[in-house]
Amino acid sequence: MRSPLFLVQNGVLPARPGAHSALLTATARSGVEVLADDFSLRERGIADNRLVEGVKAASLSVIVDQLANGRKAIWH
């Protein structure tokens, strides 16, 4: 199972339709699960139904559960 790409804080901004969203859509089409933190989306006024193709809103608990199961995370 591949690890998802989880967008947080300002990292959710390219999940909106725009010039910088094509890379996220291409990443999702290549088989990577692209998730955007629902709290970060709400803080920035981005509705779940306004995300580009292939990006899904998810709670931080998704990543917490994966870390608890031994998955690795890279924070930047």
Number of helices: 3
Helices and strands, in N-to-C order? EHEHEH
Q: Which band does the percent of strand residues land in?
A: 5-15%
Structural class: alpha/beta
Low-confidence spans: none
Distance between the termini: 22 Å
Shape: globular
Query: Widest sheet: strand order?
Result: 1-2-3
β-strand number: 3
Mean pLDDT: 90
Determine the fraction of residues in helical runs and give it as a percent range: 25-40%
Q: Radius of gyration over alpha carbons?
A: 12 Å
Largest sheet: 3 strands, parallel
Description:
This protein is an alpha/beta fold. Helix content is 29%, strand content 14%. The protein has helices spanning 22-29, 38-43, 61-68; strands spanning 5-7, 34-37, 55-58. It has a 3-stranded parallel β-sheet. Strand 1 (5-7), helix 1 (22-29) and strand 2 form a beta-alpha-beta unit. The longest helix has 8 residues, at 22-29. 18% of the residues are buried. The model has no long low-confidence stretch (mean pLDDT 90).
